[in-house]
Amino acid sequence: MTTSAPAPGAAPTKPVARTARARKLPVRLDRRYLPVLGTFVVLALMLIVGGTRYDNFLTPAVISNLFINNAHLIVLAVGMTFVILTGGIDLSVGSVLALSTVITAALLQAGLPVPVVLPLAVGAGTVIGLAHGVMIHYFQVQPFVATLAGMFLARGLCFLIAPESIAIDDPSFVALASWVQIFGEWRMTSSVLIALIVVGLGFLVLHFTRFGRTVYAIGGGEQSALLMGLPVARTKVLAYVVSGTCAGLGGLLFAMFSRSGYSLTGVAMELDAIAAVVIGGTLLTGGTGFVLGSVLGVLVLGLIQTIITFEGTLSSWWTKIVIGVLLLIFVALQRVLSLRRT
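Structure for Galactofuranose ABC transporter, permease protein YjfF, as requested:
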């Protein structure tokens, strides 16, 4: 018994059943988006539970206050996202934020005009971020140690400049801080507007520029990025410059919120920023994460505090407990995803 062979040059027949089955496969969601999707689900569930349990919870006033009270933390989280994406960490952002508030209050009290004070306050964070980047890349200092030194330096400078709290009563600064735009029951303050602009710029830089692609490449593997000829040194230094600048700007927003400069402002706020970034889906090992996910992480943290405030009977320490549980869950999720990818 013989079998007929296909004619020379004829295309081999494809298994029809396999092709049809391949066309019916559902679209798979990229694993990189799973942590962010989880953060969004958690945020949605919190809104649903809060809306069903408390009156006047899902109102424009509450949501607007959620952004107003956390505008400075949103800016800190954007800068922290850049650093963690490279596989680093920045422990100094809380102290740099305090230094920015103190510089702003002290210079305004000395009579300097607002257009001069604002760049100086933000620039202080830029200089400290530049120092971190240089120490980490060129002197091979561990990011934890380098930024820990920056944290102590910035906090010490705060007490050197202003041992006591300084009230801000400059008319121009107060007018800038008091600016508000009302859309029905929604409120948009100058701090929220600046924070949203920073988020938009961070999103564009990370996803549509060579610098942003290099940030992801360094987090994925610094040696591989070097072999590809990418500007690793410049990018790592600039990532810490971005974080320091965002910390300085965050201090300016906090000064607008509190109308004062205080040396003890922002204690442990760097931990809140790191928690927001991790809950937002950014891997602590670097290479995977999104600015918008970090914003969702900030909103989750703010919403936890809002729910506890509405509850009334719970201690404020429950905020830390819930944040700790969420961190453990999201770190475990990141670990599972990393093992599956490997």
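The radius of gyration is 24 Å.
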